UniProtKB/TrEMBL annotation:
Pfam families: KORA (PF16509). Keywords: DNA-binding. It comes from Actinoallomurus acaciae. Residues 28-70 form the TrfB transcriptional repressor protein domain. The keyword DNA-binding applies. The lineage of its organism: Bacteria, Bacillati, Actinomycetota, Actinomycetes, Streptosporangiales. This is TrfB-related DNA-binding protein. One of its GO terms (molecular function) is DNA binding.
């Protein structure tokens, strides 16, 4: 049995919670799309002769971060 909404303040909080949840879901979808796009661009640059160290320097991250980005992109593209 669920707790009934008893006040207008509770109703407003529940409505806001639903809005925030919907926004979080949309942002997660956008983040997945951007990760796929990032991986596609990185694969293109790697195909043009850049290596992971080159990409890491350009992005100001470690080579291991590039490896992780590529790995996450692969996992998300199969989901």
């Amino acid at each position: 049995m669920s707790k009934p909404i008893e006040t207008s303040e509770q109703a407003e909080l529940i409505a806001r919670l639903k809005e925030v949840r919907a926004q979080a879901i949309e942002h997660a979808r956008i983040a997945q799309d951007l990760a796929r796009e990032r991986r596609r661009i990185m694969e293109q640059l790697l195909g043009e002769g850049f290596n992971q160290a080159d990409l890491a320097r350009e992005l100001g991250v470690t080579r291991q971060a590039i490896q992780k980005m590529m790995s996450v992109g692969r996992k998300n593209s199969h989901a």
